[in-house]
Amino acid sequence: MRIAHRLLIGFIVLVVLALAAAYFALSGSLARLDGKLALQGPSVPVTLERDARGTLTVQAANRRDAAWALGFAHGQDRFFQMDLLRRVAAGELAALAGERAVGLDLNHRVHRMRAVVEAAYEFLPNDQREVIDAYRDGVNAGLGQLRVRPWEYLLLRQAPKPWKSEDTLLALGAMYFDLNENGTNGRELGIARLRAVLPASLVDALVAPDPTWEAPLDGSRSPDIVLPGPDVFDLRGQEKLAGHATIPASEAMPGSNSFAVGGTLTANGAAIVATDMHLGLRVPNIWFRARIRFPDASAPGGMRDLNGVTLPGTPALVAGSNGQVAWGFTNGYGDWMDFVRVTRDKADPSRYTTPTGSAAIAVHDEVIEVAGGASRHLKVEDTPWGPLAATDTDGTPLALAWIAHRPDAFNLGIMALERATDTDAALAVASRAGMPPQNLLVGDRAGHIAWTIIGDAIPLREPGVPGWPGFADATSYPRVIDPADGRLWTANNRTVGGPALALLGNGGHDLGARAQQIRDDLQAREHFVPGDMLSIQLDDRALFLSRWNDLLQATLSRTHDAALDPLRQATARWTGHAAIDSVDYRVVRTFREHVHTLVLAPFAARATKRFPDFTWPRATTAEGAVWQMLVQRPPNLLDTTWACGDALLEAAARQTAQELASGPGGIAARTWGEQNTSHIEHALSGALPHALSQFVDMPVEPMAGDTDMPRVQAPAFGASERFAISPGHEDESYLEMPGGQSGHPLSPFHGAGHEDWVQGHLTPLLPGPSQHSLVISPR
To answer: Which of 314, 543, 555, 638 has the largest CB neighbor count within 10 A?
Structure first.
């Protein structure tokens, strides 16, 4: 017994020591929040303060020192996330994460993004390089001041590599990938494959926008959809093909909402700008809340006061307010990529034919390092238009022209917004900012509001000319300034028509139902305060699905199939919201998805037969064409399996009932919240035991909202922030954010503010009382 007793005591001591050692190692990567430091970098002392949510306030003597201090904070709190951004963009993730990341690296390395940004850095003006270099030094100083390397590297058994100046441009490159189809141009390829197996007029109808749901700023309207007759295409008598591609009836695309009201609609006379940027959700959040203050003679009171969100990896305030102007973004989904057919020289496949002879294809041997495994070699074949990245429907190689391949598409021109004094000055920044083109919505303290496209690489096209002969100049950028009703809105939809649309192109616009609902919400009010904008951001009314509910009810009334009784009971009352406890919403949404699949299956099957890896083109849900087929019931376009359209709808209802009845409690228990349950996790959560991952991830909970409504929400996708800012009245404005400021589970800011975001509670834009203060003086 004495031996057992001593062994037990010894075991307990070992466990305590192990836990203490683990805590010591884990706590060693916590950010320094208080005290004084003397470091090489700032020209005069800088102060970093934090409030209870971890909002950073930087007090500096100039913008260069502010960039250094922001870099210090990012390097301490977010270095691992910054490392992921640069590695994802450069195709270097496998060197950190091992074999599981090789596929992503192969896809991204073909773009040779590191070579692009190294050239871009050399093109930058001196003032931008100075800020980037100061930020780089701050990041590395912050990383160097941690007692232990960030905990993620302990788990991966890796050491972090210092931040380079070009890595800041790689962070922008990661956003190009995120916002531009991951650099694949898959939508254009998918449409080309449909055109290879179906008549042109049928494909035109399938990919056409549905004018019913459009809400462009200029009031333009797309043409009505015209379905081809049996003389063009007739399924009757044709071979019936089994199987179908996945039809994305509802999909979450990287995008955003932004809307603004002018000073004639506000009590204080200043504009209000609201935005919620829709991206993948993670721990910590992609954005980092910050207030940046430094002397500036052009600012009110001689002090520039920036408030909003920064992107760790860059020194810029991405979205927010400078005290005179507020701004926000949504993804514009213009056409920023094109394929160019490249015909190899039959006598020498290493060359390609041109009108004047042949030219050599440049070849690059890209080495992909793999942690714990053998390196891979990737042969990248390059042309003046871009790398060979795909194959056309007839087997011809395709070079991808993408604006992100241009070094001059990368710069920190966006930082000029920090000093814009009014909307005119903000609009002048648009054509100089090297970033993924976005809808820019701005408002100023005098009450003016405006919209344009920001991004300095809008390609020009000429029929029959491969690639791009040039790029749009500032005078051709479309603009809407101070509309008569004092309201502006964008939600990844088509914003303009006519020549402006011809310039921007269609890279996969949103259906428009979300933008239309925001527009109507704005028009329902005559007076606004910032808090009114949150009610629009949280609007989860399912207006888009109302007609699908009517269609389901008509279908259920025509059949006496007892198997559909649970559907009748679940949808007896249409609540019309994507609410957590809504069963009827989930039923109607699922019914629509099955209808889409059944209607489009014959067309997708023909593409899949010829191209086994075919996927339905992104952002071409064919909503308008499907609805017209259900209204017109054209026998030449409906699958011959169904004697009529009614039989197809009844089959979709039965599939819906079978799918939703399979879980515990049957259809009555299939709430929307059960399906739409949050999974907002740290990047390394999957490498941890569940008992530990729950301390790193955000709580799992049902969420309201969905795709085609202002409150966009999916399990790991949605509003990465929500704010509404009245410039000059920041004390009346709000900003809420999921995931928290810090990904460190021991940080007081881990998950801070997340529950307010879940519940939609107003949280102030301005930081609260300072809880921590760190002063860094020049050494």
So the answer is: 314
Which residues of the chain are under the pLDDT cut of 70?
5, 7-8, 10-23, 243-251
302, 248 in Cβ contact below 8 A? no
- Shortest CA distance to 708 belongs to which of 508, 440, 495, 516? 516
Structure tokens at 68: 């250094």
CB count in 10 Å sphere of residue 464? 5
Provide the 3-class DSSP secondary structure of residue 705. coil
Q: Residue 691 has what pLDDT? A: 85
Site of tokens 């590599």: 161
Beta strands in 155-254 (DSSP E): none
Nearest residue to 281 (alpha-carbon basis) of 702, 663, 698: 698
> What is the predicted pLDDT for the residue at 17?
55
712: its two tokens: 């966009």
Rounded distance between C-alpha atoms, residue 235 and residue 237, angstroms? 6
Q: Both tokens of residue 301?
A: 């009171």
| Angstrom distance (rounded) from CA 134 to CA 42 | 9
CB 393 within 8 A of CB 614: no
Residue whose pair of structure tokens reads 């589970």 in the numeric block? 745
Contact 253, 508 (CB under 8 A): yes
Residues near 764 by beta carbon (within 8 Å), at least 6 away in sequence: 731, 733, 734, 735
Q: What residues contact 141, with CB distance under 8 A and at least 6 apart?
A: 39, 40, 41, 68, 71, 72, 75
Q: Of all residues in the chain, what percent carry a pLDDT higher than 70?
A: 96
Task: Give which of 143, 131, 132, 134 is closest to 166, Cα–Cα.
Answer: 132
Beta-strand pair 56-59/46-50: antiparallel
Span between the terminal Cα atoms of the chain, in Å: 62
> How much is the pLDDT for 734?
98
d(CA 261, CA 115): 43
Pairing mode, strands 357-360 and 487-490: unpaired
What is the β-pairing status of strands 56-59 and 288-295? Answer: parallel
* Sheet with 772-778: strands ordered across: 35-39, 772-778, 46-50, 56-59, 288-295, 303-310, 317-321, 325-331, 438-444, 449-454, 479-481
Task: Find, among 421, 425, 450, the residue nearest to 273 by Cα.
Answer: 450
Please report, for residues 262, 275, 278, the alpha-carbon distance to residue 518 in angstroms, rounded to integers and kept in the order given: 16, 12, 15
User: Do 340 and 398 meet the contact criterion of CB atoms below 8 Å apart?
Assistant: yes
Q: How far apart are CA 50 and CA 643, in angstroms?
A: 67
| Token output for 87 | 């590695």
71's CB contacts (< 8 A; 6+ apart) are 134, 135, 136, 137, 138, 139, 141, 142, 163, 315
| Helix, strand, or coil (residue 358) | strand
Measure CA 691 to chain center: 30
Residue-level pLDDT at 731 = 97
Buried b (16+ CB within 10 A) or exposed e, 563-590: ebebbbebbeebbbbbbbebbbbbbbbb
Nearest to 742 by CA among 11, 29, 7, 5: 29
111, 404 contact by CB (below 8 A): yes
Indicate the Cα dihedral angle 54, 59, 62, 63, nearest 10°. 10
Nearest alpha-carbon partner for 79 in 16, 131, 136: 136
CA dihedral over 42, 45, 46, 51, signed as positive or negative: positive
- Measured distance CA(349)–CA(361) in Å, rounded: 9
Give CA–CA dist 443/481, Å, rounded. 10
CA distance 115 to 124: 15
Question: What's the token pair of residue 485?
Answer: 């009703």
DSSP element (H, E) containing 348: strand 348-354
Token pair 């800020």: residue: 131
3-state secondary structure 414-482: HHHHHHCCCHHHHHHHHHHCCCCCEEEEEEECCCCEEEEEECCCCEECCCCCCCCCEECCHHHCCEEEC
Contacting residues for 327 by C-beta, under 8 A, at least 6 apart: 273, 319, 320, 321, 417, 426, 440, 441, 442, 443
SS3 assignment, position 260: strand
